[in-house]
Design brief:
Elements: H1 2-20, H2 26-59, H3 68-78, H4 80-84, H5 88-92, H6 104-115, H7 118-130, H8 134-162, H9 166-173, H10 178-208, H11 230-233, H12 237-246, H13 261-278, H14 282-307, H15 313-318, H16 331-344, H17 351-356, H18 365-415, H19 433-442, H20 446-453, H21 461-465, H22 474-485, H23 489-522, H24 530-545, H25 553-563, H26 566-582, H27 586-597, H28 603-630, E1 635-636, E2 647-648, H29 654-661
Antiparallel strand pairs: 1-2
Length: about 675
């Protein structure tokens, strides 16, 4: 009875505090609480009176029975004060209900949208190209089912069960592992800062794509219109527009400067878009995610159909069919595939946990993990032929232009008498310049070939195709240049950047939900002012993001993505597995999962979480550290003196760069 009385007292205190909160249903709560208290008091009074009478008869058979009226004051004196004596702090608390997704479809689309980040899609294609072709795909699918889906299920189940953000979940599971949540939060916050800047780049290009021709298709004229800008004339229009017009890049990372004004407005606009998508609550955010994800998939299908009809697409698709059996014995291929699984699913950032905390617990959590992982795999398989086709088209067009330029140079040299008449190329290259020029060049004698190659470079289609780099800049260089070659370049450029914007925004919504939910679980008082708190967090991210809009900001982004992000993510995931298996409270987590499913958890999943996955992740971390220690810390920089972008070593200074980016020296 005492326990019930205390429980009722707590309920009454919560109802009283809810009555004082604005916008709550005060009358309904008050009426319900009053009725429950009256009924409870009546029942307990009757029971207490019967118990007192029975005790009196047992100890004093002839004693006068105790009436209910005499027993009631005793009951009130002993029980009622416990029920209403509530600390002032608890009285002032406002009971906050955690918002939920409107339906299961919105929840799954939110998880899918978060995992479909453009950088991961490109990285998958890059690894396919340079890590054994079809063998890489087989290794990736194997690791996806071995570690990817179990880890995704782990984070989804933790979020659904604990109803907490990234920091709170691991504190509940095990207090000693709470630092994992803070580490994951910091990684998520820093990634959110420069991903906002990437979104600003996309918005800037999107605004420029309404011009005809697009500004990165031709070099700009000088002010007196006497000719093209000489700095642009010594490079390509795409490179010039990216480094000089968009980034206003410095020559090295040491050259500081104020934020680029032309990027500050797009950055502010990207933050405002996030606010519009998130301020109206989770139900509105769910509908936004439905639009973003579905429109991105539709645009991607349009690009796949259009890209396979481009010239040179067959040459690019040929590289998809290459299978290098020897790659299966290469440790770097396995390391790249494992890291790609973790990055493509967005594990370790806490966003999956936060998104899952807004859905009712269900027995289909494992099915949800499988659906999200397979959707992510299908999206990468869908975008791969599109990227390879566009790469083939891009390499073909550049090779055509290279041969046309060589033809023009050779004609001038022959007319000037520097080269013999035998070195005069065919003047009509209409149709297929590469094929015509190559046929003519192969018909020359060896001495003439050597003399020709001493004056002009050799234009090789395969070498041009393999020049691509593993970088987020790829979307702004190779693809932007390829879009300018397609007929109707304005339309296709706009569609391409719209697709990138949708993908980036869906990823940023997941990251922002993780940041805001984690902070609200720590500072409970801000839950009463969710909209205001969201605006404050967005403004802080805008101000911090200005650091990456400086002339050297893109170099910092490159260094962070290449040398920093993956290692803390692996460490975070390792400790997540250790917490679930070896923490004292982990047994209750497994028991809750068993009650949710209606049967014990699959032993293979517990075995994977407890033994195999930690070993695989430890091997990944060791090989990643070893690989990073062998690489020189470099980045591509714009060199205005020679108008090129050679690799630079960040001497910044070199001691600082080594400490911050080289894991062996941390």
């Amino acid at each position: 009875i005492t326990t019930d009385a205390q429980a009722s007292g707590t309920s009454l205190a919560k109802v009283s505090s809810a009555e004082s909160s604005p916008g709550s249903h005060a009358l309904e709560d008050k009426g319900t609480a009053t009725w429950s208290l009256t009924a409870w008091v009546s029942e307990v009074q009757a029971f207490e009176a019967r118990a007192v009478r029975a005790q009196a008869r047992a100890s004093h058979p002839k004693a006068t029975p105790v009436t209910e009226a005499e027993a009631a004051p005793v009951l009130k004196q002993r029980l009622l004060p416990e029920k209403v004596q509530v600390p002032e702090k608890e009285k002032s608390e406002v009971l906050i209900t955690r918002p939920f997704w409107s339906n299961k479809a919105e929840y799954l689309l939110a998880q899918m949208g978060y995992t479909m980040r453009p950088a991961s899609l490109w990285s998958f294609c890059y690894l396919w190209l340079h890590s054994g072709g079809g063998i890489f795909l087989i290794i990736y699918i194997f690791l996806l089912f071995l570690i990817g889906i179990p880890l995704l299920f782990l984070e989804m189940a933790a979020g659904q069960r604990m109803r907490q953000g990234n920091i709170g979940v691991w504190k509940v599971i095990s207090p000693w592992i709470g630092g994992v949540g803070y580490t994951s939060f910091m990684v998520c916050f820093i990634n959110g800062l420069f991903l906002n800047v990437v979104t600003a780049w996309i918005l800037f290009y999107l605004s420029q794509s309404f011009q005809y021709p697009v500004p990165w298709e031709k070099c700009p004229l000088l002010e007196n219109a006497s000719g093209f800008d000489p700095e642009c004339a010594r490079t390509t229009p795409t490179l010039y527009f990216w480094y000089r017009m968009t980034l206003k890049a410095s020559d090295s990372i040491e050259d500081d400067g104020p934020p680029v004004f032309s990027l500050c407005l797009p950055l502010f606009l990207s933050v405002c878009l996030l606010g519009v998508f998130m301020l109206n609550g989770l139900k509105w955010t769910g509908k936004v995610m439905c639009v973003l994800v579905s429109s991105s998939g539709l645009i991607m299908l349009c690009f796949v159909v259009r890209s396979i009809m481009l010239e040179g697409a067959v040459f690019g698709l040929h590289y998809m069919t290459i299978v290098k059996i020897s790659a299966i014995y290469n440790v770097n291929v396995w390391r790249g595939a494992g890291n790609q699984v973790l990055c493509s699913l967005g594990l370790g950032f806490g966003s999956i946990i936060s998104i899952a905390s807004h859905i009712q617990s269900s027995s289909s959590c494992l099915n949800d993990a499988v659906i999200v992982a397979l959707a992510n795999l299908i999206s990468m398989m869908l975008v791969t032929p599109f990227i390879f086709s566009v790469l083939g088209f891009w390499a073909t067009q550049l090779t055509h232009r290279c041969n046309e330029k060589n033809t023009e140079t050779l004609l001038n040299l022959v007319n000037m008498g520097i080269l013999p008449p035998e070195a005069q190329p065919p003047q009509n290259l209409i149709g297929n310049p590469t094929s015509i020029f190559t046929s003519w060049f192969n018909s020359l004698s060896n001495p003439i070939k050597k003399e020709v190659l001493s004056h002009v470079p050799e234009c090789n289609l395969e070498e041009q195709f393999l020049k691509i780099k593993e970088s987020t800049n790829f979307a702004f260089l190779a693809f932007v240049e390829a879009m300018s070659f397609i007929p109707g370049s304005v339309f296709w450029s706009f569609l391409f950047f719209l697709m990138l914007l949708n993908l980036e925004m869906s990823t940023m919504i997941g990251i922002m939900d993780s940041i805001i939910t984690s902070l609200q679980d720590i500072f409970i008082s801000v839950q009463k002012y969710t909209k205001l708190f969201t605006v404050v967090v967005l403004m802080i991210m805008f101000l911090c993001g200005l650091f990456f809009t400086r002339p050297s900001g893109s170099y910092y982004i490159r260094l962070l993505t290449d040398y920093w992000t993956i290692l803390p993510i692996i460490i975070v995931i390792i400790f997540e597995n250790l917490a679930v298996k070896w923490a004292r409270e982990a047994s209750s987590f497994f028991a809750d999962m068993a009650n949710l499913w209606g049967h014990p958890m699959y032993s293979i999943i517990r075995w994977l979480w407890s033994y195999l996955i930690p070993v695989v992740l430890l091997a990944l971390s060791v090989t990643t550290v070893f690989q990073l220690s062998l690489k020189n810390i470099t980045y591509l920089a714009w060199d205005s003196s020679t108008v090129s972008h050679p690799p630079q070593t960040p001497d910044l200074h070199r001691e600082w760069g080594a400490r911050f980016f080289n894991p062996l020296l941390v």
